[in-house]
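Same chain as my last thread, 205 residues:
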Amino acid sequence: MVVLNIIGQGLSVLPPIPDNVTELLCGNNNLTELPPLPPALEKLGCSRNKLTALPDLPLTLEALGCNSNELTALPVLPPTLTHLWCSNNQLTALPNLPPTLEVLSCSNNQLTALPNLPPTLSVLSCENNQLTSLPDLPPRLSRFVCINNRFPPDLQAILDRYARNLPQLIISVNQYNAQKLKLRRQMGRNIAVSYTHLTLPTILR
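reply #2:
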């Protein structure tokens, strides 16, 4: 493992990164862009910069921390990714989530919907967005934070009722989604409702 740690150095530009680097920690700088990433990179921590976009992500990447930037979109996520922290940006949508993802923190953005959640997901933080619906919740989910969104009253009632009982919450939200889908099919048209700790070092986030 080759770690390049340049956190908090006041950098506005990064030089080319050697191909053998597997962990890049460049948070808390003044970066507006990143150079091409090493092909074998496994962990990228670039939070608290001024990034407006990310380069293509290596297929080997397992953890991405890009909180507190100015991102409006994320690139395609690699199939190996297990941890994604992308809170405090300007994201309006997320790309498809890889089937390996275990932790997703996407709070404090402008998201109106979440993509389908993989069954491996155990932690989901999506508070302070513009969500009006939720996808089906994975059965392995053990932590779920979704306050300060725009859920319709009937869904919000489910969330409030089961706030301290996560397994019942998962069942209830999934049943809610199934009922709405059935109603949509019966009506033959769209209705207003759409279907809509951490194990790695904090330094990545």
